[in-house]
Design goal:
Order of helices and strands: EHEHEHEHH
Radius of gyration: 16 Å
Number of strands: 4
Oligomer: single chain
Largest sheet: 4 strands, parallel
Distance between the termini: 47 Å
Helix content: 25-40%
Strand order of the largest sheet: 2-1-3-4
Number of helices: 5
Length: 169
């Protein structure tokens, strides 16, 4: 039986990055717990061919290798640093190049990092946007559920619970 493969993708374009370190930590923890192989990539691993590519066949071999690892993964861990409440553009571009059905049924663990001083709840917007990007979820409650989960996490860490949104949500 083939070994389970856990692959991580960091949406950061610089090295070193806290986002890649976070993804790498999650990937390796999963791999150890599941007896799986582990690989982590970031946007830089795609090389210069990523930006101008409009189709997968326009990618250079190193970028096609990373795409192949994403598609062959049994479990994906994806994260992006937040920028104005969303994921990075090149991170989105990677997933825009993939056939939407290629990730169907694949477990995906989503994460986000924020800059110093960025409220933890801001990460929820990035994670929710990433959920919609990867899964095509049009669920209006998605943001609320993620935000509530982050607020519970803040509370457990000793922080103030998140304030309610206007309208009681």
């Amino acid at each position: 039986m083939p070994q389970t493969r856990v692959v991580g993708i960091s949406g950061n374009i610089t090295r070193p990055s806290r986002t890649r370190a976070f993804v790498d930590h999650i990937v390796h923890r999963l791999a150890v717990d599941a007896g799986a192989s582990a690989q982590t990539f970031d946007i830089e691993d795609f090389g210069a061919s990523l930006l101008p590519a409009r189709r997968l066949d326009e990618l250079a071999p190193e970028a096609r290798y990373v795409v192949g690892q994403i598609l062959a993964a049994d479990i994906l861990v994806v994260a992006s640093p937040t920028f104005k409440g969303s994921y990075t553009g090149l991170f989105k571009h990677v997933f825009d190049l993939l056939d939407p059905s290629s990730l169907r049924g694949k477990p995906v663990i989503l994460a986000a990092t924020g800059g110093r001083g960025t409220p933890l709840a801001d990460g929820g917007a990035s994670v929710a946007a990433t959920v919609r990007l990867l899964r095509g979820i049009g669920d209006a409650d998605c943001d609320l559920r993620l935000r509530q989960g982050l607020c519970r996490r803040r509370s457990r860490l000793g922080g103030d619970p998140c304030p309610r949104r206007q309208g009681g949500r």
